[in-house]
Design goal:
homodimer, alpha/beta, Rossmann fold, six-stranded mixed beta sheet, 12 helices, 12 strands, elongated, DNA-binding
Chain lengths: ~350, ~350
DNA sequence: CTGTTAGCGCTTTCAC
DNA sequence: GTGAAAGCGCTAACAG
């Protein structure tokens, strides 16, 4: 058996209360001599407090849950890394929950985390959540009085902090770069239209077009699904549209586009330029390294974890919206039409 | 406040003991009528047992810890996915621990998991663990009486199950394929020499050479570090060695080699063939899709989690060595010297 | 200065 | 059939 506080009590002759006090540094009126005795005994007996017992009395487990759709997805694994590093550093534990974008599973995880005594949740809402599902999750969280932070999604009046990236800005800078390079007919491969982040990128795209006096042409917008397959389909669709550049709303669909272009012997960037979004590490390795918009995912994980821990520690009720700026990473997949 | 068993007692008029019995289906002599009343009340009051309290009395938290070096590494994120899916399915919780290959952190995590009441650990020992460090970790696990399973590493007499892949076989089939394709001078980019899995692949390589009567030439072996940079260095080293193929002991270093070859305008596979190991999803996307040896990583996670849970449930002491077979994934990076 | 006591929410034994 | 009571390992009033 592990040593308990009782063992120390027996060993030293003091009561468990005294032991508890000195081991938690709450013993102001206790002489250093007995403090020392107790601490020595604790070390000698290799005492490690049972966190389950502490959790029960304090109603605090120093544990947070991370609810994401899929760790094996680069975005989430980077995020998870940031979260885990931060938790670890601050002495918190991390329970990992993969929803596979299944709303039911999401709800069930929230409940499980509450039952396990998690103190808070870092929450990446599943992609298929419409208004109703979103409200359901929010409602459950609220009824459980579970503190949480939304990652990669902002909801008005949700009574929580959120960490998001400025996707409008991202859409804007990517498009601006294309425009500055002389491109005028730009095909977009968006994400699913029900995703706010995709819509934001599109708004940024439109804003840039507008600023440069380029008319917005709906026929140049292809609704993708953030995967390779839709990137391929998009290229086929664009073939007849006389474009000089493609802005893919994530790197994955950019890879699909990349391949399809190669397949049609279309040179990147000479014949068609390509710009992505995410900056997955592979983008750098492609034969034509991909110019893309980087999201500081790891840092978002760190920020989310820090904020949640702070809210938990201070019981503060001041919710923040932590905004990250995307950054254009210029590599070789965009041709400069003006200066060549 | 959440409803407790007491609330149900008050609400129904029965005692907490009775409530507990029927809710845990241990109420043999209790009439269906009161069972029903209690179950209904539980539902009505939305009762969810406090797992922390249960953990304290049962000394069981239905939680396992996963100790890996880095979730953001594809290998581990796939593994984690397999583990998480399995835990979830069996009603277990997963605490994630990233050691960043730091031995001290590894030890500290083991202790933390024990303190948190984790019931068992899925353990991927950090890459820098020499004999002494390995023994230290094993010793700690043992002194904590913490059941565990080793992933991706087998240790004789370790008193635990392990799930590993047959790396010798992997090294063998990759080399055999190269040999069957007519290659005779094959450069190897290994992993660090202190890693057993790299040494195993090398042994497999040697075995294949031997079987085909090709002499083993030490000058064709380059010790890499499983990263891109060492893949690049390896190619520079091989430039003067008159080889027709490179066997890279992981995909990452294969990418490095790939790039360096491109840089030197060496055509893959026409001038030099390249074969990798791992089958990271990106290998398929390369301009010259990479022929490689696939490890069933997700399945390994599933198997590890299943085995651990089973050992935990049955308190069985029969340790198993679960061996996975690697598989050759033939794509376009190896030229057939014989039939062209 | 230190010990006694109650209690966190639950399970389990034993008695009625 | 059901309830009282003890106890899991710990914290935190409160006494003294």
């Amino acid at each position: 058996m592990r040593t308990t506080i009782k063992d120390i009590a027996n060993y030293t002759g003091f009561s468990v209360a005294t032991i508890s006090l000195v081991l938690n540094n709450k013993a102001e009126k206790i002489p250093d001599s007995t403090k020392k005795k107790i601490k020595d005994a604790a070390k000698e007996l290799n005492y490690h407090p049972n966190q389950v017992a502490i959790g029960l009395v304090k109603k605090r487990t120093q544990t947070i849950g991370l609810v994401i759709s899929d760790v094996s997805n680069t975005f989430f694994s980077m995020l998870t890394k940031g979260v885990e590093d931060t938790c670890r550093q601050q002495g918190w534990n991390l329970i990992l929950c993969n929803t596979n974008d299944d709303h039911e599973r999401e709800l069930s995880y929230i409940q499980v985390l509450a039952d396990q005594g998690a103190d808070g949740i870092l929450f990446c809402m599943s992609k298929d959540s419409d208004k109703k599902k979103t409200q359901e999750s929010l409602q459950l969280l609220k009824s459980l009085k579970m503190p949480f932070i939304m990652i990669d999604r902002y909801i008005e009046n949700a009574n929580c902090s959120s960490v998001v990236v400025d996707h409008m800005k991202g859409g804007y800078i990517a498009t601006e770069y294309l425009l500055e390079s002389g491109h005028r007919r730009i095909g977009c491969i968006t994400g699913p239209n029900n995703l706010e982040d995709s819509m934001e990128r599109l708004r940024g795209h439109q804003k840039a077009l507008w600023k440069y006096g380029v008319p917005y042409d709906e026929r140049l917008i292809f609704e993708g699904k953030y995967d390779r397959e839709s990137g391929e389909r998009a290229v086929k669709y664009f073939l007849s549209k006389n474009i000089t550049a493609i802005f893919s709303f994530n790197d994955m669909s950019a890879y699909g586009a990349y391949h399809e272009l190669k397949k049609h012997k279309i040179k990147i960037p000479n014949e068609i330029s390509l710009i992505g979004y995410d900056d997955i590490f592979f983008s750098e390795i492609l034969d034509v390294p991909l110019t893309t918009v980087r999201q500081p995912v790891y840092d978002m994980g760190v920020a989310g974890a820090k904020q949640l821990i702070e809210e938990l520690d201070n019981k503060t009720e001041s919710y923040r919206k932590i905004l990250f700026q995307p950054k254009l990473i210029i590599r070789d997949s965009v041709a400069d039409l003006l200066h060549t």
